[in-house]
Structures are given as C-alpha cells and as structure tokens.
C-alpha cells in the first residue's frame, strides 16, 4: 500500500517538474492528474502537497542559475591585497529589485484571494478554457512577431514599467489554473518585445519568490503535523520534481534557441479540447 502511494507521488513529481517550466500549466496538469490518479491522503494534505512540491522545482532553478542569481561573489587576488574579500554584483541586485516589483501583483492579490480563486476556478472546465485561450495566444503572438527583432535582449534592459506589466500577466496565472505561470509571463514578455531567451529566464527567476512564498503559505496553513506516510510522499514528490525540473529547464532553453513557442500553443489547444470532451461527454 505504501509503495503504491509513493509511486503515485513519484508520478506527481514528474508531472510537476515537466509542466512547471514548460508553458503548458503545472496547476492545470496537476488538477487533471488528480482526476485519474488520486493519492490516498486527506484533502488538506493534498492541497498542500501539490503546491509544496514546487520547492523541488524551484531548487532546480537555483542550482542551474546560481551564478546569475547570487549577488555575493569572491573577489580576485588584486582585491584581496586591498583587504577586499567579497563584492556585491550591482546588476544582480537590481535584477532582484525588478523581480520583487514584478511579484507584487501576484503576491498581494493572489495570496489575499487564494481561497476564492480555488473555489471559483479550480475545476476542469476553467482549466480547459485557459489552456486553449493561452495556446491560441502563443500561436498568434509568434505569428505577429515572426521575423521581427526583439527590443529587449537582456534582463538588464528590462525597465521597471516592463516588469510591472509582466507581473500582471503572472497574476492571471494565479487566478486561472491552466493559464500557466510561465506561459502567462512569457506571453506577456513576448508582447512587450522581450526575446524568447530573456523572457524564459526572467520567468524562471520570477518563480523563486512566488513559488517559495506560495509553498510556505500552504505549509504554515496545513501545519507541521505529518504521518510517516505523508512525510515520505512529500519527500518523493520534492526529489522527483527537482530532478525532472533540471531536465525540463535544460531542454526548454535548448529548444527555444531554434524553435518558437507555437508547438506548446498547439499542445495546449489539443489538451484543452480533450479535457472538455472527457469531462463533458465521457465522465
């Protein structure tokens, strides 16, 4: 029995690790997966579990991009001679300020109305609609920007006005499951003239405070009283999400160097239609 539940947790971790970073909606896929593969746990534990395993995905970003997100560095030998052993990278600190600003809409509104959003929109129909709408958006935006040179080709070039707008796109994902947090912010960034690579990396960095905050909120709300089985389920989900995320992130960054996001748009549309067909005509 325990082994079977751990295998389920492994499956949830794989789905989380893949869909968190590809712009196809991790929350949407987790809701759909729960319709077919249900963990033998309480409703409150599962509500916490599906958010907290995102910490595994976040750790993957931290490991891969550590040199780009950690602002405190070892000084060189010349600086050592002057008694300077460490220095602060000003550009990285400015980037974190931009990330903080971009997180405000989702952080303030998303947390304040989290229970309301879950009650109103966390269902297969809303997931399907969001999958289709943003799938169409990816295709249209890629067609509109075809052969156009992006205006912004580095994170340093992102203005405060631009990151605020990207933050509001992130808020859409906090409200409507199936939108995809990465999908919403990438779509918003592309509309604003940001290159695919910069849009994707900035989306990864945005996820660190947002997902850490969401996971901490859910964990505190649930409490720290776990059964042995619940601890193992959480550990398996976290570790699996971490390993799978590393693979998914590296795949996506290589993929967008030669391809557009249109394939993800078509995937979203097809999946959304299948969800509608299943829940409206089969179930």
Automatic annotation (TrEMBL):
<dbReference type="GO" id="GO:0046677">
    <property type="term" value="P:response to antibiotic"/>
</dbReference>
<dbReference type="GO" id="GO:0008360">
    <property type="term" value="P:regulation of cell shape"/>
</dbReference>
<feature type="transmembrane region" description="Helical">
    <location>
        <begin position="93"/>
        <end position="113"/>
    </location>
</feature>
<dbReference type="GO" id="GO:0009252">
    <property type="term" value="P:peptidoglycan biosynthetic process"/>
</dbReference>
<keyword id="KW-0573">Peptidoglycan synthesis</keyword>
<protein>
    <recommendedName>
        <fullName>Undecaprenyl-diphosphatase</fullName>
        <ecNumber>3.6.1.27</ecNumber>
    </recommendedName>
</protein>
<feature type="transmembrane region" description="Helical">
    <location>
        <begin position="6"/>
        <end position="24"/>
    </location>
</feature>
<keyword id="KW-0472">Membrane</keyword>
<comment type="function">
    <text>Catalyzes the dephosphorylation of undecaprenyl diphosphate (UPP). Confers resistance to bacitracin.</text>
</comment>
<keyword id="KW-1133">Transmembrane helix</keyword>
<dbReference type="Pfam" id="PF02673">
    <property type="entry name" value="BacA"/>
</dbReference>
<keyword id="KW-1003">Cell membrane</keyword>
<feature type="transmembrane region" description="Helical">
    <location>
        <begin position="265"/>
        <end position="282"/>
    </location>
</feature>
<feature type="transmembrane region" description="Helical">
    <location>
        <begin position="198"/>
        <end position="219"/>
    </location>
</feature>
<keyword id="KW-0812">Transmembrane</keyword>
<dbReference type="GO" id="GO:0050380">
    <property type="term" value="F:undecaprenyl-diphosphatase activity"/>
</dbReference>
<keyword id="KW-0961">Cell wall biogenesis/degradation</keyword>
<keyword id="KW-0133">Cell shape</keyword>
<keyword id="KW-0046">Antibiotic resistance</keyword>
<keyword id="KW-0378">Hydrolase</keyword>
<dbReference type="InterPro" id="IPR003824">
    <property type="entry name" value="UppP"/>
</dbReference>
<comment type="similarity">
    <text>Belongs to the UppP family.</text>
</comment>
<dbReference type="GO" id="GO:0071555">
    <property type="term" value="P:cell wall organization"/>
</dbReference>
<feature type="transmembrane region" description="Helical">
    <location>
        <begin position="120"/>
        <end position="140"/>
    </location>
</feature>
<dbReference type="GO" id="GO:0005886">
    <property type="term" value="C:plasma membrane"/>
</dbReference>
<feature type="transmembrane region" description="Helical">
    <location>
        <begin position="45"/>
        <end position="66"/>
    </location>
</feature>
<feature type="transmembrane region" description="Helical">
    <location>
        <begin position="160"/>
        <end position="177"/>
    </location>
</feature>
<feature type="transmembrane region" description="Helical">
    <location>
        <begin position="231"/>
        <end position="253"/>
    </location>
</feature>
């Amino acid at each position: 029995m325990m082994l079977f539940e751990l295998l389920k947790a492994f499956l949830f971790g794989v789905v989380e690790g893949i869909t968190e970073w590809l712009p196809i909606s991790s929350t949407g896929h987790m809701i759909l997966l729960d319709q077919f593969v249900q963990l033998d746990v309480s409703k409150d534990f599962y509500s916490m579990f599906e958010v907290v395993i995102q910490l595994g995905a976040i750790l993957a970003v931290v490991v891969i991009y550590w040199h780009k997100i950690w602002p405190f560095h070892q000084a060189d030998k010349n600086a050592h001679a002057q008694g300077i052993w460490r220095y602060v990278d000003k550009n990285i600190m400015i980037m974190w300020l931009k990330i903080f600003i971009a997180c405000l809409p989702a952080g303030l509104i998303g947390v304040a109305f989290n229970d309301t959003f879950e009650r109103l929109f966390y269902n297969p129909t809303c997931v399907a609609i969001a999958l289709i709408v943003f799938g169409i958006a990816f295709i249209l935006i890629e067609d509109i920007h075809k052969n156009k040179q992006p205006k912004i080709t580095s994170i340093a070039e992102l203005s405060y006005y631009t990151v605020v707008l990207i933050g509001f796109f992130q808020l859409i994902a906090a409200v409507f499951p199936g939108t995809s947090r990465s999908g919403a912010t990438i779509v918003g960034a592309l509309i604003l003239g940001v290159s695919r690579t910069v849009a994707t990396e900035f989306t990864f960095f945005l996820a660190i405070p947002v997902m850490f905050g969401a996971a901490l909120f859910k964990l505190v709300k649930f409490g720290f009283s776990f059964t042995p089985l619940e601890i193992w389920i959480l550990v398996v989900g976290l570790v699996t999400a971490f390993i799978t995320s590393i693979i998914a992130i590296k795949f996506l960054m290589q993929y967008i160097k030669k391809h557009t996001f249109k394939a993800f748009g078509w995937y979203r549309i097809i999946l959304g239609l299948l969800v509608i067909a299943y829940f409206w005509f089969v179930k």
